[in-house]
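seq/struct pair 1
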Amino acid sequence: MTRRTLPTLARAAAAVVAIASLTPTASAVHRAHATSGDSRVDVAATDPRFGIDQISDHTPTISAERMAALADQMGARWTRIPFIWSYIQPAAPPQADTAPALTPVVSGTLPEPASWPGGWNSFALGSEGSDAVIDRELTHGREIVGMLLGTPPWACRDKAKASRAACVTGDVPTLYDDGGNPLAWDSPSNAWGRYCYEMARHFGPDAAHPQGRINRWTLWNEVSIPGGSVWTQWNDPDKARSEKDYARLVEVADEAIKAANPQAQVVLYGDPYWYDQGQFLTGVLDALKRDDPTGAHNGYFDVANLHLYIGTPSFYWIITNLRSELARHGWADKGVWVSETNVEPYDDANAGANAARDGATAFRVTQQEQAGFLVDAFATYIAARADRFAIYRMLDGAGMTSGVAPLGVMDNTGWERPYGHSFQALVALFQGAQPAVDTAAYHAGEFYPDRTVDGRPVYKAGVFKVVAEKLDTAGRPAQRLTTVWNQFGPLNPAIEKTYSKVQYSWDHSWHFNYNTADHLYHDAKDMIVLPTVDKDGKPATDWAGVSYDVHATATYTFKAAPGVGTATVYDKYGHATTIRAGDKPVEVDRLDYDGRPLPHVTPATRMTIQLRGGRYTVRLRGGTTYSNPADPRIPTVGGDPVVVVEQMGAGR
């Protein structure tokens, strides 16, 4: 199988580049998939901000090397790998204060637990040994971010529960003594502190790896969602205590990790913002500030972290709002990551690809729409100055059988989903790009009151615009990249027949009574959706003040860069089209990759663009308001984007 890509857009530089000689052409090139261990990510042509979670995952029929080679080709510069404590140290050491350090085991046979030194399982990441898994990724030139999570029963806070082996992996570890006093990170009774220290020491700098193998560690996963499963990872219904406990968990980990590896960074859990609109995360930040009033520990963390799925109109505000929260606490210098982003496709027809998710599920889109979403999201992350962002995940994996969403770049049959090609195009297009400084970097749609319904304003909303720039070696803008998409689209006919009027939302998942028999939402007010964000993307306190017209297509105009007479326009798969001032409108979307048509491609409107009189006029398809006819909800995925690339100044 071959792969259609952009040409070598940025091989000559890593971040700040002279653009003049690197203009992408209107043709695309092919290169064969790498399938062996001889590949390596091209550092000169990629961007350290762009990553893919869990690249090391594999199945009996899809090898780890195949995954690594594909990630190299896509340009993934970092990956997150979970280190689940209950897998790595399932048995308590004989005595916590004398437990031996984590010792690598390099044989290919998983030893019996009784022979694990101090209870340490050196094969938690794979049968070849955890060290071999980590070393393979490093050999491919990728940075690894470790995720520490999951409490083994012997270490959980509830000792009575642990004695019955009923403590689940989401339970809080022991962080306080019997009198309620915080345990020091290096206390013999603080097993969590010892675990963090040993992991950071083992993968930190040593004679064989003077730079260290893992220097960034994120702490647990989506802890604002209670429940205690291995991925929802927090099992305390008492919100105030839970915030305090997680803050203490971070404090212990920060001290332990940095004692073992002073150059390491600590990253907070990935906050799924829309679960509680960031309330838990704010409570954690407040607790960390209370426990470090003088800043002696710099808040006990280095990076705040988000998990953002669907709803691209809210992403810019969520990131900038988090930065404001950090500044309010005195931490304006801390980083912000989006370590998970994606949206769930439903139309992978390969046997078993959707597994337990074949029924009606939230946020379902086609694979085509998933590809468009990725471009919309990444452009927004650049505009919001996110320091890193990654798609979740590389491979569907074994979790599909238990209902995990089919979000992999590759499904379990070996089919590479189209959005992987979009990721590769984004890496080439946006390498080194930063938010524009001489124009608005983010334009949150065309919002203006259009009419009123029952005395309430109805907003006509549509096109979003995000502007990024690349700089030359003197720091001057040399290339401008403008991404535009139409967020809204036509209503599902089934909804139009059922309801007399519709309220449209950017987030809707827990506001309705959903009838599984007819797959429709039912609400007493005869409204489908009650908005949870206002017209600026901020959480709405009163749904009645915000409603939207929904349009199938949008025609949008915006200014060209001064003096530009030619531009290159890219669709979501990186296909390039050259446009010139005065020409007739040109179609700019191919809706295929590698020359192969994709399923569910029946657009009513082809997208066109024209450059005339110093302005671009682009006709955009409507965004997604439904995808699966059997599941007619209204997720707002956003429409297909176009990226307009202009050469500026000396770059022409």
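seq/struct pair 2
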Amino acid sequence: MTGSRVRIEDFKGQYPKRGNRLLGNSQAAIARNAKLSSGEIRGLRNWRSIHNFNDATIRKAFRLPDPLSPDGFLWVGFTNPEVNLFPGPLLNDAFDRYYKFGDGRPQYNTLERLRNGDPYYWLGVPEPVLAPNVTPAGGVAPDENRAYVYTLVTEYGEEGPPSVIAEAIGKEDGTWTIDNMDTTVPNPAETPVETKNIYRTITGETSVEFFFVINIPLAQASYVDSFASDVVARNNILESGEWVGPPVDIDNAVVMPNGFFLAWAGRDIHFSETYRPWAWPAAYDLSVQYEIVGAGVYGQSAGIITKGHPYVATGIAPENTTLIKNNTSEPGLSEFSIVSLPYGVLYASQNGLVLLSAQGVTIPTEPMITKDEWLNRYSPTTLKAAQYEDAYIGFYSENKGLIIDPQDANESFIELDAFERIDMIQTDEQTGEVYVIRGGVVYLWDDVQSERVGYRWRSKDFYFRRPCNMGAAIVDMESVDDVTADVTAIVLAARAFNAERIQYPLCPIGSSTFGGSIKPPMLPPPHDADPQNRNAIGGSPLIDTGQILTRNSDVQFNVYADGVLVFTNQILDNKMFKLPTGFKKDIWTFEVVGRRTIYSINVAETAKGLGDV
């Protein structure tokens, strides 16, 4: 007889809600820092530093395509983590405008001005202050009643709402002098107005419309109009009648797929005109019952997360967007927990992670975790999250986080604890890459060029009705050749770093040597957390390349019997190894800790029994 045996493969994430005995054979009691989507246990990769702002207070970063900047990108950072910086919705925008929300009054800037360090402009074009006067003169044609307005226009062609209407009766073929127009704006440093557009009505039209007459400089106080009506009638009609700027108290915004912004302030929702982000007609405004926490976008819809019921706003244009309230009370607990995914919006609520989608409201974490566990172990009120591939990644403290993928049973729930001092995590919408920000430095998450971090995967409690002694095991894992190939680039990078590091003076005490040499810059993770690599008094300031292959090759295999650790050892290959004998237990648990990829875990009472696993 071969006795009791266990084979574990197609590894899955953890399900804290389930009792350890009731888990499926491939489900985990503990799954940390692992990638399981392939069914194998692979360690996540470490970060790689990609930009240093040299400002430890930076909490949000954006990488803007810029052919005139080093590496083809311009980095823009903010100390306020609520800030969102969106590229303009206008295709092939000649000015490369970017729009900033989440930091007080909405603002915008051009790529060139950002590159030069110039300040932001206020979003929106002001309404003229002065009411124009119109004075007709001369002419022999019949009298007509004519009305004039003017608008302010920025250097980027953005047009604001019209002035008060000025009317007069005169001859169609006479001259009409328009004066008393604005020649300055109240805040010229914040509003780059350069010109004015003048519009007028035309007698005989079936509807009262204002037709474009001429564009004149802002400084020009008056204009004499002598254009014939049949000429003006061929010009454009005034579009900006309701184009006021956005409310100054907007909390934040998202971009809808068809080129308009959806923003919110308190309980109110505001929309920009399609492809005209400076224009926010009040007629488009909507309201919800509770204060808005934040929003995310999927498809043609926006999920509106409030302090009460969630809402879905759907529409291909702002003027026909409808708002639907979901009757499930799932308030949002953290604006930073809101993540837009292709299939819906995920956010932290009191009952777990909530998915707001076309199917309504569901709680993907409900099968995995209880409400008490969610609130007490994972601190949803402090959760900061981002999209990681098609999954949800979040950190609820500086070094504790989770990965949840509602659509992948293997990666349903992964804990993270191998990363330190995280200030913010975000997704670059233009590349899909995930950034971690720490101390003003931007790191690329799970970088393919970086070393893997250590994972921990612990099985369910396997219960046997007849107590047994598990005496032999095989951990099937990737070959040393594969490990070597995986870390070759990392070793080469470490050697290059060492060669560069040797150029700096050593720092045996404090931040400088006795001779006054400056301390070298902080090393990249994981070495920045290792004191011996910073000061010679604690050890070598160089990366130990000899240890890279060793720590990526070793796998620690732990065996628990009735909850007590009975075996722990480093496993170097796929060969069978013996486990302790002389006792029998009815509950057995198995755990692997390491960086090397694991394909399966096989345990039996005897070596012969392994052949039947």
